[in-house]
Amino acid sequence: MQSWKGSRAAAPLILTLQKRWLAIYSSLCGNDVKITGVGQMLVFIDESGYPRPTDSTQNPVLLGVCIHEADIKPVTNQIYKLKENLYGKQDEIKSTKVIREATITKNRSINKAFAEGMVDIVTAYDIAVFAVIMDRPEQEIIVPDHHLPRQYYLLLKKVEFYCRKHLQGKAMMIFDEIHEEADRKIADALTGFLFKTDLGRSFEHILEMPLFVSSAVTPSVQLADIYAGITRHYYEQGLDKHAPETGFQEWIKDLYDKLYSRTENNHVKSIDGSDYIEYGFQHTKFLAYHSKEDSVLTKSE
Length: 301
What we know:
Elements: H1 10-29, E1 41-48, E2 61-68, H2 72-86, H3 95-98, H4 101-105, H5 109-124, E3 128-134, H6 150-165, E4 171-176, H7 180-196, H8 198-202, E5 211-213, H9 219-236, H10 247-260, E6 266-269, E7 275-278, E8 281-284
Parallel strand pairs: 1-4, 3-8, 4-5
Antiparallel strand pairs: 1-2, 2-3, 6-7
Helix pairs in contact: 2-5, 9-10
């Protein structure tokens, strides 16, 4: 899996690699194939928690941050300046460090300012955020080899429909790397979904070659990490069901509302001709894998 070790160079490296891969894609498809759209989209993906019975999280989240290619440099610069001003260094600041009750109850003002600054970035640019919120399963979810876990294909759908509506070109999926074997499984399953399922083959805006990077040196992936942590806490605190009752809950709701304002619900026509809404933030309980047999299923649960 492709990755690199660097710091501020991550943004131009991503853009350079994206251009190379788009050129390779065009040559493989043939000269008569054109990638249309007003620009390319980079989708930074991270998760907070994982849907397994033994996981400590109650509502694991898979989240994608969609950033226009032209905005990568200024967004990266904003993150760089935020860290420099608050911490005086460029170390990765994980959501588990800042999105926690102690940030409010123990008045950890620097961590609070960092989380708020990272969220403010989403409101300053034309950025879209999509998320799949899950419940911790009671039993282990068995995903056969070469099949895409359901939360990933649900997220892909949201990005595809968003790009389709806004006439975007290809969207590159950029994942926070785990380890080579796990990354390879996701890459194989993703390309298998795009090439072997009816729904996947209908997608025109998802680049078939995902990228795996280290969040420690790729600032925009850190956005996805912070946003996923906020979204998870919002649901685990039950704020989708009741008003905030503590200072921490009020803070989480304020951050979440800003993220939610950057998502988009799309009206989509299913294969039977009926209309349905593809929700930008989707809470789903069904996490079976996505196979060819259920490729006709396009409605959001």
